[in-house]
Amino acid sequence: MKAALSPDYFYIGLCLLILASLIAGYIDAIAGGAGLILIPAFLMVGLPPQLALGQEKLVSTLGTIAAIKNFMKSSAIIWKIVPIGIASALLGAYLGAEVILMLPTHIINYIIFAFLPLGLAATLFKGKLLAGNPQTNEIKESALAVFITCLIVGFYDGFFGPGTGSIFIIALFIINKLSLLQASATSKIFNFASNIGAFVSFLIAGKMAFLIGIPMIIANLLGNHFGSLHAIRSNGEIIKKILVITVGLLMVSLAYKALS
């Protein structure tokens, strides 16, 4: 990052990244989509694309722990489907990260800007998808459905990432018939597993900056903590409302990048 910014602007850029990490953690705990904020922010301060993707995994992986802790206390996580989902998400994310690391930098830049709208669409239309599927009291615990879902979403998380939390929530709500709060809580376990899978791959490749990552991790932990508490107190209703904020922040980030 210091190579990308002059000394005068280094600390300003770091402060902006810390603020972005705080906001991303809060949003991620409620609706998913931390990468929609973090990756554009990393690119805007000049981090190379592979380092931006790896840094997002560093911050998001550890930041999610605070949200998982609070959701565990609320008993909203459906533990019966967790083991197979974790294994599948880990595998999928590791494979996805290995694929993206094999590609040249200029191709990754194109992929990032091509896939950002996909993450945006998952976030933007999640509310409509969830509203269009009335909730039943029957939770489907199909091992095959959980495995395939987590493998595919996990691969996407390792390959790119933004919108993964929203995609997990949609899949668990529609396919496995979890309630909105249950889907949001259980998706954190799977998203954490997929983050770990990608984290290992990017760590081995040396695509992480731990020194600047420490304050961002702390900020992300705080954001996840308060965001998950807000989601639990609101019984999941805030999840739909926060989508508007996520999309708005992303559009600002993309507009800034385009103009600069």
TrEMBL record:
It comes from the Bacteria. InterPro entries: TM_pro_TauE-like, TSUP. GO terms for cellular component: plasma membrane. It is found in: Cell membrane. Keywords: Cell membrane, Membrane, Transmembrane, Transmembrane helix, Transport. The chain crosses the membrane at residues 9-27, 33-53, 74-95, 107-125, 146-176, 196-222, 242-259. It is a multi-pass membrane protein. Belongs to the 4-toluene sulfonate uptake permease (TSUP) (TC 2.A.102) family. This is Probable membrane transporter protein. The lineage of its organism: Bacteria, Pseudomonadati, Pseudomonadota, Gammaproteobacteria, Pasteurellales.
